[in-house]
């Protein structure tokens, strides 16, 4: 098994997690013995990632910055098999959810996770959540610096941070190290974008107050350029201002985005900068050797440049149309010549988006060991990524993924749908999401048609909390409950491409569940008839506006 | 034909503490996974009593509450809301997938 090229836990990390598991084991024992009431126990289980959903407990496992080793993925498969129903659901926050965990098994599941330096900390509660990052980090050709170094520094600072354990509400941070944002940084409480200034220094643009949910807002720039060594002090100052002024009287107004919206980013900046000035030269100023020590653990794998044009690959492209399409949609350029980043689509036709069985997880781990330096990434678009594959190995990787059912050539296409668990699982949902995604997926399953339609992102949420990111879908679909009937509100024009992060606009009245596919079909037909060369669906929408789409959809349904 | 759609008929439900499974309170004061065994309260007063009983039988369950149901002529009961239908009968994927295949 190859060495991993990301942060490895030390004894301190391991003892922290081990202690936490034993604490929770005792808490579960006391709850089952009736020594703790549910009211007393609920916050304890939630801080260990254990939610109670419609049919069962759900364990949300943290996958920090979406990075996994093959060993860790095999352990996740093992836990899914031993303690759940043999599958898991990769989420839009790069986590894994197991939907059928028993309370009595949860401590053992957490102990098994701890064996591979994993846990469920920071996956619930009003605190700084698991930090997310570009899923191509450390491999992308357009990357300025690996954002995971900074995710890990934030993880070490934020885990069990005593001052920020009871924030007004949860707090999500995302980081991108590339100009082409793949981490949706403008729709997070704090988004960080690494960039290089005119003096050739690399630092952060700090973006604050973005978010989806009930009140979708695009984040605003709090600091144009922050020197890297000042990151923690600046975040500490930002969290202090939020902790002090964030609303605790109204759940729906408690996120930092509402504070920024209500008082203005200028006022928030004034407060943050004043706080920052008081602490910036203190203990949180990052010493170069501290940064270097973390950065060393993310040293790139020892890849040597290889042939970029491989006759076997070219031959298979001509022979196998699906492989040719897969190369177009599911591979991305790698920083080392002769290599590629491969996305394994967890969206085979008609399958629940983001679900993987234990066998499939083990299969991906095997492929990663053999062809991708033992590394896997989870994308916020609910796919798995093999970040370091030699181009000459692409035919073998494609065949191996096909055997697992994860070689659908649909990444970025109409069937690469993001969907939250929805009313089939979630205690908060108003309507189902997964069955809607399945119907759309089956309707548009033909690959050549998908590639003709081109890049089109459909995102589905089963309630206004927007875990399915419907606000930023080219086509967003929101399930609502109207007098006990599921209806689906369609919005168009959302996008998270950097520099043009846009929230979708509601098209018109919600449509019935059995009309959603027809509505999407009408939207696609309108696009195909009116698009200009090179235009994506969302580009055509921006050019011609909503009316032609609206006329077609409401004429059809 | 379904009757009592006004929500007058109610059963007590909860999640089982040890595994989170959906359970219903039966006439003997036991929690069961089988909806057909649930005790049905037929008026407001009975429903209040049923909920109180559920709360006193709450050692092994979490957060009991009342679920509005309908009852057909054969005495079969079914939750009124989709959410409670899904809680009572499980994931809808298989049924929907079959529909989707036909639709496609």
From TrEMBL, chain A:
InterPro entries attached to this UniProt entry = NIR_SIR_4Fe-4S (IPR051329), NiRdtase/SiRdtase_haem-b_fer (IPR005117), Nit/Sulf_reduc_fer-like_dom_sf (IPR036136), NO2/SO3_Rdtase_4Fe4S_dom (IPR006067), NO2/SO3_Rdtase_4Fe4S_sf (IPR045854)
Domain named Nitrite/Sulfite reductase ferredoxin-like: which ranges?
57-116, 351-403
User: Is Oxidoreductase one of the keywords?
Assistant: yes
Q: Which residues form a coiled coil?
A: none
Q: Which GO terms describe its molecular function?
A: 4 iron, 4 sulfur cluster binding; heme binding; metal ion binding; oxidoreductase activity
Q: Which UniProt keywords apply?
A: 4Fe-4S, Heme, Iron, Iron-sulfur, Metal-binding, Oxidoreductase
Supply the source organism's classification: Bacteria, Pseudomonadati, Pseudomonadota, Alphaproteobacteria, Hyphomicrobiales
Nitrite/sulphite reductase 4Fe-4S domain span: 124-277, 414-553
> Which Gene3D superfamilies does the UniProt entry name for this protein?
3.90.480.20, Sulfite Reductase Hemoprotein, domain 1
* Residues that span the membrane, as ranges: none
The entry's protein name is Sulfite reductase (NADPH) hemoprotein beta-component
UniProtKB/TrEMBL annotation, chain B:
Pfam families cross-referenced by the UniProt entry: DUF2849 (PF11011)
Question: Which InterPro entries does the UniProt entry name for this protein?
Answer: DUF2849 (IPR021270)
Task: Quote the protein name from its UniProt record.
Answer: DUF2849 domain-containing protein
